[in-house]
Amino acid sequence: MNNEQYSPVLSNMVSKAKVLGVLSTQARGDYNGALQVMAVEFHAPSPLVANRKCHLARYSRRLNNDAWGVVDISLESLSPNPLIGYRRKSSGRLIERFRDGLCKVTWVEHCEADNSSVPKVCRYFVTSGHAYGAKQWLSSLVRQHERLTNIRVRHDPKSQLSTGEANLLILADQMMRNFWRNLSFSRKNRRMLLSLSDDENINKAIIRFVKEKEGRRPGLALVMAATIRIPASDRRIFYFLQDENSRSKWDILSHGHIVQQTRSISNGCVPGNRVCPGNEGSKPSLKNLQRSFLLFVFSPEDPDRAVKTLLQECFSTSACSYVTFTPVEASSINMILNGGDSDNVLVSPSGFSILPDGLTRDEVSLVTIVFQILDSAASPMCFPAHSVYGMYKLITETAKAITAGVVDPYNMG
User: Fold this and answer.
1) What is the per-residue DSSP string for 311-334?
2) Which of 149-163, 297-311, 345-359 has the least mean pLDDT?
3) Which of the chain's termini has less CB crowding within 10 Å, N or C?
4) Is 367 in contact with 352 (CB distance < 8 Å)?
5) C-alpha radius of gyration, the chain, whole number
6) How far is the C-alpha of 168 from the C-alpha of 98, rounded, in Å?
């Protein structure tokens, strides 16, 4: 009910949420019996899938001392219109508190949607309910609870997490929010649909212009994204992409360089989630690969001086996995680790969302590849041809390299 928390906590699915009006007989901040009218917009983990928009009424009531109910219904349902492609039917959550400090959340999603415009590569993922279903919402809620709990422990005197490391997690969270904004297929965004190749699996991409908010260093950028199907499990692809030992196999800009990981920080609250990849023996589970860390890229000619520093975030929920990274200046990293504020550090996230296609979880996955590059010549009305071609090459070559890396068992490092 608190929109200032609803949008940030569920930013991997909520593109926009605005409260248009509130009807309540209670004191401010008391949501028992409150009715909100909201404008909302939801997005899937692929920019090829258009956002879902609606106006809804959200009602909350305290059922007893330990239980709340929150119900949504789309206002478009009151005036049927064939031009409206999404209606949120009666949906909601039942939240029950237990004495041990835990709570049980029951989530129900019910909607009508016109999916005729969804590309073939994403169609089953959307129509099956995997994209916007209750499982996605609940896994997002659990994930954010772990992250926020982990950040807040810096106030605990017994915590081993330094202020600098906590600030690094905050910067990683900012990077993830920007990444999800890049995934969002909002109709307000100036964008272009591109044909990449004759290959049916990598034939469409979205490119659009983004501009950093005021208060940060000026940054005009282009974002290109494509969703492909890869005949491998989401677990296998996730492990391959997050491991610095296999990075040079898919990261064109790291070819011929030495990649080293440092400052691995757990971003979940499960003990033992600090895992170093590339160890001999069995591969760790997805649950144990929830972390933020720094990557240093060295030139073989000068192995003592890093040519690039990357902040990388990788985590997995029961519904989706992400590997996201951004270049960060070494001076900014040192400032943050020494307790400095990360708010004004520029992040330009690129990365991957990895999902089971819904048909055969262990055989085929949907991978969305997103790259963002700074380009001072870009504008909402102009996408420089050389930049578009460069990103086209980057997307197609990366897609082929990932496919080769995970399909061939000898490429797993």
Assistant:
1) EEEEEE-SS-EEEEEEE--HHHHH
2) 149-163
3) C
4) yes
5) 22
6) 33
